[in-house]
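Hey,

The postdoc asked me to send both predictions to you directly instead of through the lab channel. I've kept everything plain text so nothing gets mangled by the mail client. Protein one:
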Amino acid sequence: MEDQTLCPPITERIRHSEKDIEEALRMLGLLSNPLRLKIALLLSAQEMCTCHLEETLGAEQTLISHHLRLFKDLDLLHERRKGKWRFYSLKDSRVKDILKSAGLI
């Protein structure tokens, strides 16, 4: 049997709940898609409507709307309505923190 005294004592423990870890995984999973990452980058800089996202990203409106729904499902977007237009911006600062950590903003 190996001498256990050579190992340093454990000083670090996981301090987050399973719920917190699951939420972080959902957010990281959301940003693992290239189009959603680009949407997050654009919305981290300014509020945009779907048509501007469509034009900037070169993607169809239905695809943009589908991806925006995934952001909304995780409560990561502010949505502002003006007439028939909808404007979006990031609601959760953790998304910006992830983008900063990745060196993207």
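Protein two:
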Amino acid sequence: MQRLQVSADNVANANSDGPLPSAPAAVQAQYPAAYAPQQVDQVETAGGGTAAVVSSVEPGTVVMFDPAAPYADPNGLVASPNVDYASEAMQQVTASYEFAFNALVMRVYSQIRKSALDILT
């Protein structure tokens, strides 16, 4: 479920922009930084299996034109989270399949265990 949570956070905060990292300290102190999106990678663990590892998306922000933002630089540029909606949709579909497969594994394990107990009794 970690994959789904990270993706949902990214989509919910995709429009949470902020001042550019190069903005003056006074501007950065007055306005929150742009949301920093995250990603989930499945990595192999020692002894078999996998683990979900959350890391920051690089680059975390992209420059966008928004001259109406109070923290925009003199050229009207702001930092916007680097969120790719197509990738996030894929992550959410992947999370639903992961959940379904995990539920199937639990069901099969339960059936095998029940069969083993039936054989022993």
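Summary for protein two, as requested: The longest strand covers residues 38-44.

Thanks,
C.
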